[in-house]
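Worked example 3 (structure in, sequence out).
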C-alpha cells in the first residue's frame, strides 16, 4: 500500500518532540511493508528531503528560509499569528502546502492520504481525489468551537474516508460539534516509545522527592495551581522539590508567583529538553503532574510517558486526562483549580510508598497495553485496509 502522511508537525531532527508520535506511526506503517512518504513544512536549518527509518520525508519550501516559521511555532491553532514575520509568511505557507500536496499526489500516486490534524492537512487533502483519513489531536478539535471554522470543517470531515481521534473525549467532542460525524469517529491512541522510557523506570529518585511538570507555560495548563499547591506542601513541612520544565508566555508571571508564595528556593525552571532526555527527567521524579484546567487537554501523553518511566502521576479530570489517570487505579485526580486538593493528592504520593508503587505499577501496565507502537500502528493498518476494501 502507498500511504502519504500529511502534517504540519513532524520531527525536524533526531530527538525532536514535534510530531514524534506521527513519525512513530509512519515508521511503523513502513515497517509493515507499505511504501510511506511524509509531506511536512520546511524549517530553517534542516534538509528538504531525507529518508528516516524507511520513510521518505519531503519538506516543502514556502519562502526564504528565515521566514519559514509558520509551522512548529504553535501559531496555526492558537487563533493568532504570533509575529509580523509569521503573518507575512502565512500566504506563502498556504500556497506552498497546497501545491506540494498536489505535486506529491501526482508523483507518489498514494492510495491513501493520512492527514494529521484536520487543519491544515485535512483541509488540503479534501481537495484531492485520494481517499483520506483525518486524525485529530486536540488543538484542531478546539477550532471547531468557532462557527466559522466549523463551517469550513464540515465538508472536510464529510468527505473523509475515516475520522479518528486520539482520545474518547475528543471523539465525543467531534461528534457533538459535527453531528454528521456521529458513529463515524474511531479512537486511535498515539504511540509512545515504550522501550526508551521503560529504561528509566529503575533510576534512583532524586532527593528531596521531585514533583515534575513538563509542558507549555500557558494559563490553560494550570501551573499556577501547582505552585499554590506546592506552597501548601511547604506549610505542611512535606519535603519536596518542584521542577517546571517548559516555556511559554506565562513563564515570567509564574516565576513571580513562586517568589510571592515564598517557594522560589524549592522551584527549578528549565527550558524544553530534547525528547531523548525526557526518560531521565521522568525516571528521576517521584510524581509527574498535569494540572490542566478547562478542556484543552486532548490526551496528555506526558502522563503515559511518565508512567512507563516509573513516575507516579497526578492530573485533573480535564479533557482526555481521565483516560490515562483512572483515579486510585493508575494515578490520582485532583479537582481542577483547587490547590488544596492538589496538595492533598501530591502529599499522598510523596509519603505513601505503598500507594505510589501500586498505582505506578498498574499505570505502567495499562500504558504498555494501550499505547504501544505495535497496538497503535495495528489499528491504523486495519483502517487503511478497510478503506482499500471499500
Amino acid at each position: 500500500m502507498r500511504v502519504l502522511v500529511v502534517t504540519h508537525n513532524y520531527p525536524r531532527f533526531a530527538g525532536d518532540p514535534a510530531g514524534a508520535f506521527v513519525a512513530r506511526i509512519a515508521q511503523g506503517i513502513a515497517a509493515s511493508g507499505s511504501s510511506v512518504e511524509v509531506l511536512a513544512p520546511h524549517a530553517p536549518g534542516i534538509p528538504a528531503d531525507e529518508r528516516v527509518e524507511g520513510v521518505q520525508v519531503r519538506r516543502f519550501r514556502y519562502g526564504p528560509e528565515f521566514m519559514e516559521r509558520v509551522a512548529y511555532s504553535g501559531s496555526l491553532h492558537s487563533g493568532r499569528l504570533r509575529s509580523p514575520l509569521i503573518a507575512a509568511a502565512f500566504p506563502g505557507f498556504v500556497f506552498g502546502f497546497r501545491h506540494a500536496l498536489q505535486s506529491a499526489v501526482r508523483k507518489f500516486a498514494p492510495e491513501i492520504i493520512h492527514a494529521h490534524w484536520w487543519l491544515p492537512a485535512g483541509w488540503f487533502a479534501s481537495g484531492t481525489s485520494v481517499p483520506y483519513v483525518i486524525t485529530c489531536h486536540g488543538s484542531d478539535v478546539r477550532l471547531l468551537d468557532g462557527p466559522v471554522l466549523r463551517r469550513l470543517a464540515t465538508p472536510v470531515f464529510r468527505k473523509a474516508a475515516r475520522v479518528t481521534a486520539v482520545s474518547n473525549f475528543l471523539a465525543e467532542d467531534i461528534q457533538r460539534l459535527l453531528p454528521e460525524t456521529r458513529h463515524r469517529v474511531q479512537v486511535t491512541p498515539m504511540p509512545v516509545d515504550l522501550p526508551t522510557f521503560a529504561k528509566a523506570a529503575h533510576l534512583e529518585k532524586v532527593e528531596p522527592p521531585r514533583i515534575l511538570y513538563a509542558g507549555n507555560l500557558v494559563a490553560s495548563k494550570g501551573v499556577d495551581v501547582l505552585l499554590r499547591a506546592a506552597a501548601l506542601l511547604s506549610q505542611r513541612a512535606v519535603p519536596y522539590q518542584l521542577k517546571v520544565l517548559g516555556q511559554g508566555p506565562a513563564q515570567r508571571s509564574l516565576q513571580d508567583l513562586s517568589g510571592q508564595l515564598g517557594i522560589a528556593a524549592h522551584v527549578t525552571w528549565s527550558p524544553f529538553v530534547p525528547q531523548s532526555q525526557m526518560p531521565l527527567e521522568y525516571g528521576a521524579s517521584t510524581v509527574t503532574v498535569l494540572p490542566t484546567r478547562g478542556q484543552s487537554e486532548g490526551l496528555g501523553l506526558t502522563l503515559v510517558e511518565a508512567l512507563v518511566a516509573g513516575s507516579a502521576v497526578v492530573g485533573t479530570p480535564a479533557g482526555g486526562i481521565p483516560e490515562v489517570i483512572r483515579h486510585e487505579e493508575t494515578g490520582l485526580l485532583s479537582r481542577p483549580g483547587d490547590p488544596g486538593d492538589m496538595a492533598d493528592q501530591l502529599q499522598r504520593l510523596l509519603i505513601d510508598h505503598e500507594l505510589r508503587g501500586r498505582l505506578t505499577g498498574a499505570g505502567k501496565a495499562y500504558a504498555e497495553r494501550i499505547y504501544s507502537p505495535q497496538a497503535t500502528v495495528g489499528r491504523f493498518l486495519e483502517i487503511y485496509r478497510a478503506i482499500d476494501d471499500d
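Notes: The domain at 2-190+372-389 is CATH 3.40.50.2000 (Rossmann fold). The chain has a mean pLDDT of 94.
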